[in-house]
Amino acid sequence: MKTVDITICLAEDGTYSAYVIDHPALFGIGSTATEAKKSLEETLRMVKEDGKDAALFYPDWLDDEYTFMVHWDVRTMLQYYSGIITPTALGKMAGIHPKQIWSYMHGLSTPRRAQVIRIENAVHQLGRELVNTAL
Fold this sequence. Notes:
CATH architecture of the largest domain: 2-Layer Sandwich
CATH superfamily of the largest domain: TTHA1013-like
Low-confidence stretches: none
């Protein structure tokens, strides 16, 4: 199964876009990240339905099974998961002051690459811990 890299980001007008990194013309938009991803899936369905001859971009993986690897910018990810991962919790996990996380979430500052890596590592560690949890 092919893994297709997509980016989901929040626009200044509050809408979300989802696009295939290798083919940015393959995109979807919506009022939520979920809607944008569904819109992208609909775009891919229509491209596949129209066929290779009619499409400007027709990636080979479209004919096979594929799954998405979602890439977020920090602000969008923090806002999307804000009801689940608070700045206080993420700050504790990442070793970053919660006020700084809040500032990233609201676009008041942009994290340096080192901070992005700390946030990403903290989110991945949380995911691993949750996957390895049984009730």
